[in-house]
Amino acid sequence: MPETMSALVFEGPGQMAIKTRPRPRPAPGEVVVAISAAGVCGSELTSFTGHSLRRPPGRVFGHELSGTVAALGTDTPSRLLGERVAINPLRPCGRCATCASGHTNVCPNRTLLGLHIDGGFAEEVAVPASALRELGQLNDAGGALVEPLANAVHVVRLLPPVIGRDVLVLGAGAIGLCVLSVLRHAGAAEITMIDPVEARRDLAVVSGAGRALSPDESVEPELGEFDLVIDAAGVTDSRRDAITRCAAGGCIVLLGMHEAESVLPVNAAVSKEVRLQCSYAYTDADFDVAFGLLRDGLIPYEPWITDLPLADGQAAFEALVQRPGEVTKIILHP
Question: Are 19 and 54 in a shared domain?
Fold first, then answer.
């Protein structure tokens, strides 16, 4: 086995390049996974565009991952060798007060592949054996979608019961479509989505939205207000719309993080006694629920996917930023 491998490396805003990196070796309790599929996340796009400084130049992105176990460290089950797996990339410390309270998703000592340490936009990555979920009949793309779907599962957990209720989702990108799919499985009545891109609105309807409107169409008074509103876009306009469209006594969940700061109509939220809930990442339980939904064929994700080789990583990021109507979820393959 060669000592080096190819990886897609972030070199600064607007710049991704294939570089040679040392091939990982598993520590005790770890395995090396040969990556088969690696999804591009919206949070990575904010680093690529320079809107977020959370990922430093030189970092290998990639936390939506599936692959095959290629090597075992000590203290790992031998049966894992050769298994096809999805990877839970979020590692809470498990020791702090936050973890003890059950909020492992916001552990202050957590690490995330591709953010705090190098991730899976590479031929291989070393991860704890405990992070693996065996794919069985689920394909590689489905395995890479477990992580973003887990975010959507967490969102729906934070809402009041959705069975039989109408829900508004702002943003029909990949994470918005994940939220839509989990809401449908959870028993929501009609789901309305708002997105400025026509192709995304069309895909939302194909994926089960009752209606998908442009922001201009959504200003019509006939749209009304919603008890449950989810902002999956994370920009000022969508956050403002969430407050405007939420009914008195309703609940808003803010999920998107594309703009760090927004001026919002807080008085309107206060006067309607809106519950404003934020959602970040997911717990192990959320990850397992998402895995089960995909494994059981309950999420219609195939129309969302565009497959590209890892070598086209620069073009993939440019397409997601510049031509959102053409692509929704890009899966890179080393």
Answer: yes
